[in-house]
Specification:
The N terminus is likely disordered. The chain is of the alpha/beta class. The protein has one domain. Helix 1 links the parallel strand 2 and strand 3.
C-alpha cells in the first residue's frame, strides 16, 4: 500500500493506493476501501495483472506469471519512503515468515493479524486501522 499526497484534497489527506498481490484481485480491497472512505480518504485499487513490472502495462491474459516474482522493478521505493505492513500469521501462499522478513528489511511499521494470505478480506478492520495510521503519518509529514 502507498499513501501519496494529493494537492487540493480537503484536509490534506493523502490518496491511498491499494495494490493486491497474487491470488487476489482489486475487489479484495472492497471492505477496506469502504472503511477508509468513511474516514474521508480517496482510495484507488487498480487491477494488477501480475505479469511482471514490464508486462503489467501490456496486460492481455490469467491470474499470475512467474515474471511477477522475478522481474526487476528498479530502485525500491521502500529505501526512500516510510513503509507499513500487515503480516497475515496464517499466510501459506507467500508465508508469514517471508512477508515478515521482507517487511523488516524495508523497515516497515509491522502489525501481525491472524488470517490467511488475503488478510484484507478476512480482517478488513485491522488492515484499515493500519492504513489509517500510515495515512495520518504521511499527512503529518507534509505539514
Amino acid at each position: 500500500m502507498t499513501a501519496t499526497d494529493q494537492s487540493g484534497q480537503a484536509g490534506g489527506k493523502p490518496t491511498i493506493v491499494l495494490v493486491h498481490g497474487a491470488f487476489a484481485d482489486a475487489s479484495s480491497w472492497n471492505g477496506v476501501i469502504g472503511l477508509l472512505q468513511q474516514q474521508g480518504y480517496t482510495c484507488i485499487a487498480p487491477a494488477n495483472p501480475l505479469r511482471g513490472v514490464t508486462a503489467d502495462s501490456a496486460y492481455t491474459v490469467r491470474p499470475i506469471a512467474a515474471a511477477a516474482f522475478s522481474d526487476a522493478s528498479g530502485p525500491p521505493a521502500w529505501k526512500m519512503l516510510p513503509c507499513w505492513a500487515v503480516v497475515a500469521t496464517g499466510d501459506k501462499a507467500a508465508g508469514a515468515d517471508l512477508v515478515r522478513a521482507e517487511a523488516q528489511r524495508a523497515g516497515a511499521d509491522i502489525i501481525e493479524v491472524e488470517g490467511s494470505h488475503v488478510i484484507m478480506i478476512s480482517q478488513p478492520q485491522a488492515v484499515t486501522d493500519h492504513i489509517l495510521k500510515a495515512a495520518r503519518a504521511a499527512a503529518d509529514s507534509h505539514r
